[in-house]
Amino acid sequence: MTRIGVVVFPGSNCDRDTLRGVELAGGEAVELWHEAGSLDGGAGVILPGGFAYGDYLRAGVIARFSPVMRAVAAFAAEGGLVLGICNGFQVLAEAGLVPGALLRNRGLRFLGRDVRIAPERLDTPFTRLIGARRPLRMPIAHGEGCYFADDATLDALERDGQVLFRYVRSDGGSTAETGDPANPNGSLRAIAGVMNDRGNVAGLMPHPERAGEAILGSDDGLPILRSFVEAAAQAERPDGRADLAAAAVR
Amino acid sequence: MTVGELEPQAAPTAATAVPLHRALGLTDDELDAIRDRLGRDPNELELAMFGVMWSEHCSYKSSKPLLKTLPTRGEGVVAGPGETAGVISIGDGLAVAFKIESHNHPSAVEPNQGAAPGVGGILRDIFTMGARPVAVLDARRFGDPAEPRTRHLVDGVVRGVGGYGNCVGVPTVGGELVFDSSYGGNPLVNVMAIGLLEQRFLTRAAAPGPGNLAVLFGSATGRAGIGGASVLASATFADDDPSKRPSVQVGDPFAEKLLIEASLELIERGLVEGLQDLGAAGITCATSETADRAGTGIEIDLEAVPRREPDMEPFEVMVSESQERMLAIVRPERYADVAAVCERWGLPCAVIGRVTADGDVTVREGGRELARIPAAALTSDAIVHHRLAAPPERRRLAPAPGAPVVASDQLPERGMDPGAVLLALLGSPNLASRRAVYEQYDSTVQASTVAGPGRGAAVIRVRGTSKALVAATDANAPVGAVDPWLGAALSVAEATRNVAITGARPLGVTNCLNFGDPTRPEAFWLLSEAVRGLGDACRALGLPVTGGNVSLYNESPLGAILPTPEIGVVGLLDDVATLVGPAFRAEGDAILLVGEAAPGLAGSEYARVAGLAPEDGPPALDLERERALQAFVREAARRRLLASAQDVSGGGFAVALAEAAIWGGRGVHVRLAVVSSPAVDLFGESPSRLVISARPHDVPHLSALAAEHEIPIEVIGTVGGDRLLVDLAGAGATGAAEERGSRVADSIDVPVADLRHAWEQGLPRALGWSQEA
Question: How far apart are the first and last CA of chain B?
Fold first, then answer.
């Protein structure tokens, strides 16, 4: 079974949910303590949600300096698969491993509610098993989730296919522009998730690990985690990683 | 050196007119009682320790004789009152721990920082027992929402509770938000926490085994929240010394999160003999309670206590309420492992003393003994007051069932437009959607929330089983103000009914009694009647009271609050797949009304929105009928006869029907036979009633089942369309229409979209919050 590491920072609070989510998606989940210097042989790494180190200063700003993040950065540089969810996305953005920044929500309040998102492309390690399912319904729970980058960067992200998910209205068809209630935090160009230019590191604000079972109201998050586990399994095979990166970059 | 040989400490300065014990909140009689227990005069440090431990908050000195009358035994109860939280077995080797607690006064002083530690404190009560906190419900009561001060408090408390709860990773799944002008000067912030544990990890807050170590871990001790004892500072240090000033405790949710993980790891690895959190009265409370529960003593050395600031006085260390601290009782050979766990989680940890066999709490500083008090004198043998209770001269009682309606000159029971009233009620501050508030909380972390806030009871699945926990809080304060027995009994009835209509079996009750000054006989009568109502209702429904909290002196210059018996209930649903929700589900389903309306509009939201106090009493409660109703609905759910079940409470039948329609996104057409009067039948809040829906072919089975339970049931209409249509029929139905000379009764006919709009906009409008995304 494919080993997926889930980083545990002090203050992570979605680590247990993410470990179980990986198991639901068919992977073998292992905890990676924040002081760990290596990734324990994981074929992929997930940074879970929470308030790493308390996040009193700014979300993710301290976590990026933790020992495990050095190992994550090295892993990413080698083409290893990394996914950041919520606070994990904030940490990746602070560390410069994905483009852009997460600002305070437009309404300046913490928001916990279900949102709808739609994938921009289905040929990535994070979206390959989503199929025709959309919109995807899953919860958000954050105070700093407003995606921001300058116009040139946003243009480049769109041109290069690095926008992974956007907030959409419940009909699924129309993008939720800034100011639309369906875009809960005022993210520019309704961006809910992005990936790096190499296509092996991605972050999103909504919580797929909280939408993995019908009893919880939605299992739309499961295909995202299953995509990740399957892609990580492929990356484990000889030359798999090179194939993967080639597939991901347009 | 023993205490008897202690050098006399500096006496209160001559400039201080008030004797020290009074400054610490102790009466002259209480000082005598302390002398009796010690056989000598207490020194200043001892007096400070008694001052905090004999406070109402820690000692329950006024309420203890009342609380003793409550039923505490029940099926599966593992821990009840006297323990840190109630614990009830749910099978599969698992148990649920739950408790509700108040954090009222700090929230009034500083809403954000004041409310947050309320969450931290109640969570610690849960994980101290070895349970992982899985849910929080918060019940808040504020003054008039139009008042700027109320808006400031609401915003601060919501941010405080949210900021803390969101960070520690425990979902906020329910609770209440109620506005009444009586809370204007004294808001109520009651927080209920629920945890799950493997029963083999159940840990007691006790200090067994003389020779074991007393280990303090978590945050360092500072001058935070030095309560009554702060007065000692001004007595001893007459000069104005800012560094001695008291402060509201400040919560650190990040530290709390680490504390949760470290404590559960210590328990699951079997490294601690006992564990207690430090809350009110700090080290004094934790040492004396753990020792008293185990029949041992504890000796501590103040020099070993890690401090946040230098030059703290002994009493400051002993009564500090610095948050996020735990006291563990540890075998000496296991200390190294305990210290390693704490270090891994980045928490300071220190051996501050040891368990003794002498039954005393002994405080040393280096070699010097500063205080020695029998642990029992501070806790189980603390003073008890038998207060005087006096009923008010004039009382309004519930009308007898079937009694004729007392016509009210003021309250329109006839001749109103029921559709307009319904819209007004749905948009009123106490009945409108709470979404604007609960969206500021994380309700889905832990990935187990089956039903979160907003629609009756919260449902949390128990991972690894087919089971779910179902929880609700409720307090009927307006009725309690008229009839405190009834108010408390109704609170129990409604909270348990909310749990039962999902199909779950209520397991137990926790309570937070928010009342006024117990030394006023009328206020104490309200409390004693409420406790009697609580006990009667729990006995009738076969439920144990497993613990809770009493908050007295809830009075401000604006007056006393409405007596508010906040009830928390946890139930168990054996198979989460049988869960019944409140929303209408399918076109063509039959709608049935279960139970029947009783007269009485006092205490209703209808009366509140009309701004009137009706002369008749609140509607009566028949506890036997309530028990039968809950048994009926649970059995109906188990047999899968229900498409939906919604209880009739605030706003009455019409609001219950409208909510089920709004949540289901479906219209309804019903015909209601008016038994009493249009206002009572539509908007009265008489208890033990449900609005249910079912597939047409299940209706005969439901009727038969209701007959078995001797519960009135009537098919009143069907689900369908996009409007809410209620035709009124019967003798009392002809209101305004009658006056117009029409023989046709007035009816309600409103698009469900309009009802939804009124319901969704009500709260943001009442609070003046802009419509955010």
Answer: 68
Q: Are A207 and A141 in contact (CB under 8 A)?
A: yes
Which sequence positions of B are flagged as catalytic?
57, 103
What is the spatial distance between Cα B751 and Cα B646, in angstroms, rounded to a whole number? 20
Instruction: Give A244→chain B minimum CA distance, Å.
Output: 31
Query: Domains along chain A?
Result: 3-248 (3.40.50.880)
| Range of lowest pLDDT (B36-40, B47-51, B402-406, B502-506) | B402-406
Confidence check: pLDDT of B45 > 70: yes
Contact B691, B584 (CB under 8 A): no
A71 touches chain B (CB under 8 A): no
Catalytic residue among A94, A120, A144, A209: A209
Place of tokens 């689900």: B719
CA-nearest residue of chain B to A179?
Answer: B773
Element (H, E) at B314: helix B314-319
B358-398 pLDDT tens trace = 999 999 998 899 999 999 999 998 998 899 989 887 766 66
Select which of A14, A86, A94, A142 is catalytic.
A86
Whether A187 and chain B come into contact, CB under 8 Å, resolves to no
Mean pLDDT for B345-357 is: 94
For residue B19, CA distances in Å to B12, B15, B246, B383 come to: 8, 11, 20, 20
Is A14 an active-site residue?
no
pLDDT of residue B412: 54
Domains delineated in chain B: 580-762 (3.90.650.10)
Average pLDDT in chain B: 87
Please check the confidence at residue B577 and state whether its pLDDT lies above 80.
yes
Place of tokens 């014990």: B21
Question: Which tokens go with B328?
Answer: 């563990």
Contact flag B444-A210 (C-beta cutoff 8 Å): yes
Question: CB distance from A214 to chain B under 8 Å?
Answer: no
Interface test with B, best of A8, A9, A13 (most B CBs within 10 A): A13
SS3 B566: strand
What pLDDT score was predicted for residue B239? 40
Using a pLDDT cut of 70, give the percent of chain A over it: 95
Cis peptide bond N-terminal to B563, omega within 30: no
Q: Tell me whether residues A54 and B167 touch, CB distance under 8 A.
A: yes
User: Sign of dihedral through CA atoms B260, B266, B268, B272?
Assistant: negative
Q: Is B444 on the interface with A (CB under 8 A)?
A: yes
Long-range contacts of A75-79 (CB under 8 A, 24+ apart): A75/A39, A75/A45, A76/A196, A76/A200, A76/A201, A78/A241, A79/A198, A79/A200, A79/A235, A79/A241, A79/A242, A79/A244, A79/A245
Partner-chain contact A13 B168, CB within 8 Å = yes
What is the value of ipTM here, to two decimals?
0.93
Q: B350-389 burial by CB neighbour count: b if 16+ within 10 A, else e?
A: bbbbbbbeebbbbbbbeeebbbbbbbbbbbeebbebebeb
* pLDDT score of A241: 56
Q: What average pLDDT does the segment A220-233 reach? A: 96
Measure A156 CA to nearest chain B CA, in Å.
27
A174 band by pLDDT with thresholds 50, 70 and 90: confident
Cα–Cα dist B484/B526, whole Å: 6
Query: Taking a C-beta distance cutoff of 8 angstroms, is the pair A138, A117 a contact?
Result: yes
Q: What is the pLDDT of residues B244-294, one digit of tens each?
A: 444 455 668 888 889 999 999 999 999 999 999 998 889 999 999 999 999
Q: Which two tokens stand for residue B488?
A: 């408390």
Structure tokens at B773: 């995304």
Contact state of B254 with A216 under an 8 Å Cβ cutoff: no
What's the pLDDT tens digit per position in A67-109? 899 999 999 999 999 999 999 999 999 999 999 999 999 988 9
